[in-house]
TrEMBL record, chain A:
Taxon lineage: Bacteria, Candidatus Eiseniibacteriota
GO biological process assignments: regulation of cell shape
Protein name: Cell shape-determining protein MreC
Signal peptide interval: 1-27
Membrane-traversing stretches: none
Magnesium keyword on record: no
Keyword hit for Transferase: no
Residue ranges occupied by any Rod shape-determining protein MreC beta-barrel core domain in the UniProt entry: 109-256
Assigned protein family: Belongs to the MreC family.
GO-annotated cellular components: plasma membrane
Annotated InterPro entries: Cell/Rod_1, Cell/Rod_MreC_2, MreC, MreC_beta-barrel_core
Gene3D superfamilies reported for this sequence: Rod shape-determining protein MreC, domain 1, Rod shape-determining protein MreC, domain 2
Keywords recorded for this protein, A-Z: Cell shape, Signal
From TrEMBL, chain B:
Keyword terms, alphabetized: Cell membrane, Cell shape, Membrane, Transmembrane, Transmembrane helix
Alphabetical list of Pfam families matching this protein: MreD (PF04093)
Organism name: Eiseniibacteriota bacterium
Coiled coil: none
GO biological process, one term: regulation of cell shape
Protein name as catalogued: Rod shape-determining protein MreD
Length: 267, 162
């Protein structure tokens, strides 16, 4: 952008020179006042950037170190959590075997399989360790299923998610009873059919084994009511129950046996 | 207006670089005078009027950022901006050698003027500082910056004369 005259920019130079000399001619007080006004208004953000920029590198390094430490702590936390879980599980197994040593066999889950009728588990104890067909299987006092086939070195367990298994239960203690079975259309939930409309069932109610049928002893925790669907035509209500056990997290299970059958089992 | 804002932002950025990264001295205590190079090259490109005011603003920034007399840098850099804009009309402004020469001559003028002004107004001499640090810095700046700018422009497809 050049000036129109023969000496473009000369007026600007004169103005600049006058302004600069006015600044120079001002005493120390005037200069320091102008400098402080300029510094505290127009150039403040710039000065902040100037003081900040050398520290950015240090802050970046500190941030990186702290992130690294945070990752280490998170890893430690996860390990502690795992060890706590394992500790709780082992304590429970120890307590159970000590409190009723004649009726429990501790086994480890070897494999989990999806059969035609549903989920089955294979455990590392068999008939030589005292397993018999029909034994209830629990984990952390929650019902897992029952033994349906036994070989010398291993046993097969029908889980709650198997069409062949039906469990006689009651809702609450005391409460109305019924038969619980797996319905593949419900996904992870089980179906409690045939409950009268008059029975008062609420969401969150605990479902336990009733002891009827003599397969499962009474009072074993099974699950929790997650849905109640009244059927006004059939005058019943269908109840969905979500089991407490999670098969994907099962490592050890307990088999509840009679005193005679547990001889030779691991306790 | 936007063009002026852009120029001022670049000047502030260069001042920040001078005050931080530029403190890593490359040659015998002499560091690149990025603001001076920016002023001279911009004034040669855009003319004396813009050169004057850009020099004035850069001078004020430098006055506030350095323990100098308020108005000293604005006066000398304003004059440099004017002279660079004027010289550019009569020389080959795209030649990096011309740019280096103008940068060296005008930079030398401004340094001598500032040193003289300090001696007159404050009564103490900084000639020793001028010879030991300012002249090497000027040489370094005059040689490197136009070369860097030429290299950058060449890489972007400009036609540059040697």
């Amino acid at each position: 952008m050049k000036g129109p005259g023969p000496h473009p920019g000369l007026k600007s130079l004169l103005a600049c020179a006058i302004l600069s000399m006015a600044l120079l001619a001002g005493g120390d007080n005037v200069q320091s006042h102008i400098a402080s006004v300029l510094a505290s208004t127009i150039l403040k953000p710039f000065q902040v950037a100037l003081t900040l920029s050398p520290r950015l590198g240090i802050l970046w390094l500190e941030n990186r170190q702290l992130r690294h430490q945070l990752e280490e702590r998170a890893w430690d936390g996860a390990r502690i959590h795992y060890i706590e879980d394992e500790n709780q599980r082992l304590r429970y197994l120890l307590d159970m075997t000590h409190s009723s040593p004649e009726s429990l066999i501790v086994t480890s889950v070897l494999a989990r399989e999806q059969s035609e009728s549903g989920e089955v588990l294979y455990v590392d104890r068999g008939s030589t360790h005292g397993l018999t067909e029909g034994m209830p299987v629990i984990s952390l006092a929650r019902l897992v299923g029952k033994v349906d086939h036994v070989e010398p070195g291993r046993g097969r367990v029908l889980t709650l998610w198997n069409l062949q298994l039906r469990v006689s239960i009651r809702v609450g203690q005391p409460g109305p009873g019924g038969i619980l079975r797996w319905d593949p259309s419900l996904g992870p939930d089980l179906l409690l059919e045939g409950m009268d409309l008059e029975e008062s069932i609420a969401l969150g109610d605990t479902v336990l084994t009733s002891g009827l049928g003599e397969v499962f002893p009474p009072g074993i925790l099974v699950g929790r009511v997650v849905a109640v669907q009244p059927d006004s035509i059939r005058l019943i209500q269908e109840i969905r129950v979500r089991p407490f056990v999670n098969l994907s997290r099962l490592d050890d299970v307990l088999l509840m046996a009679s005193s005679d059958s547990t001889r030779g089992g691991r306790r | 207006m936007i063009r002026w804002l852009r120029l001022i932002l670049v000047a502030l950025l260069l001042a920040a670089i001078e005050g931080t990264i530029g403190l890593i001295v490359p040659w015998e205590g002499a560091r690149l005078d990025l603001l001076l190079a920016f002023l001279v090259l911009t004034a040669m490109d855009r003319g004396p009027k813009e050169g004057v005011w850009l020099g004035f603003i850069i001078g004020i920034v430098r006055d506030l950022n350095q323990p100098a007399l308020l108005g000293m840098n604005s006066l000398s850099l304003g004059a440099i901006g004017y002279c660079a804009g004027r010289f550019a009309d009569s020389v080959d402004r795209n030649s990096w050698k011309v740019q280096a020469l103008i940068l060296l001559v005008l930079g030398l003028f401004s340094r001598v003027f500032e040193t003289f002004l300090i001696q007159v107004l404050q009564g103490h001499s900084t000639w020793d500082w001028l010879w030991r640090y300012e002249i090497p810095a000027l040489l370094l700046t005059a040689v490197t910056i136009p070369l860097i700018v030429m290299t950058w422009k060449t890489s972007r497809g400009y036609q540059i004369k040697g």
